[in-house]
Amino acid sequence: MSGGWAGALGLLLALLVAVAVGWALYAQALRVDRLHRQVLGSRATLETQLVHRAQAAAELAASGYLDAASALLLSRAAHDALECEAPLVEDGLDPDSQAPGPTTRQRTRAAVESDLSRVTRAVLDPQTRSSLMQEPLACQCLSRLDRAGYRLVLARRFHDTHVSEARRLRRSPAVRLLRLAGRAPLPGTFDMDDDLGPAGPPAPHHEDPQ
Predict the structure, then answer these.
(1) Would you place residue 157 in the very low, low, confident or very high pLDDT band (cuts 50, 70, 90)?
(2) What is the average pLDDT across 87-116?
(3) How many C-beta atoms lie closer than 10 Å to residue 187's C-beta?
(4) What is the pLDDT at residue 22?
(5) In terms of Cα–Cα distance, which of 152, 172, 183, 164 is closest to 35?
(6) Do residues 116 and 110 make contact, with C-beta atoms less than 8 angstroms apart?
(7) Angle of the 68-83 helix axis to the 109-123 helix axis, nearest 10
(8) Rounded to an integer, what distance in angstroms lies between the CA atom of residue 17 and that of residue 37?
(9) Between the CA of residue 130 and those of 121, 127, 134, 135, 136, what are the distances in Å?
């Protein structure tokens, strides 16, 4: 009789352990999925900030306060960024974002956005900035571009932080061996040049049309 109780107790304990392990693995799989969703959410925010920056750059280029050559360079770089249809990150994580095929291959989004950063720094040297600050409307355009650039830096930082967290979890033995991430591709960072140059963080302001 005691042997029967011992066997039943052992079976119950084994069942409880199996349930606990199963629940832990299920929770781990949910965590992987949640991190993937956070990556996609932060990627959407990053996309928005990239568009805001390109729009602000195009607005400054069209303002008439830059010399013709600088305005042309900035306008071209801004519109290249706005018109680029390449996915933000070509990791395949977003099912709605498809990389261009071999016959329609174009420059990566990171390369196009980095070009805009470099052109912006080249055009808006300290002397040009000082000149623009003397004109109220030009100062507003410049301030709008600086704020957009700063928000972009923050958005990219948040995105890459979520990517790092997801990749760290994906490297754990349980996730790798038991394939808890399913067939989801490994998230990738968005590696672009987002150096603000002499602008730095934007100063406090009272007007923000964004």
Answers:
(1) very high
(2) 78
(3) 25
(4) 72
(5) 164
(6) no
(7) 160
(8) 30
(9) 14, 5, 7, 10, 12
Q: What's this model's pTM, rounded to 2 decimal places?
A: 0.83
CA distance 54 to 116: 8
Selection from 111, 116, 127 nearest residue 78 by Cα: 116
Q: How far is CA 17 from the centre of its chain?
A: 40
Q: What residues contact residue 169 under an 8 Å CB cut-off, 6+ apart?
A: 28, 31, 32, 35, 175
Q: Residue 93: which of 40, 44, 159, 160 has the closest Cα?
A: 40
pLDDT > 60? residue 85: yes
**Stretch 42-48: mean pLDDT:** 97
Instruction: Kindly calculate the radius of gyration of the chain based on its CA atoms and give it in whole angstroms.
Output: 25
Asked whether the CA dihedral 87, 93, 97, 99 is positive or negative, the reply is: positive
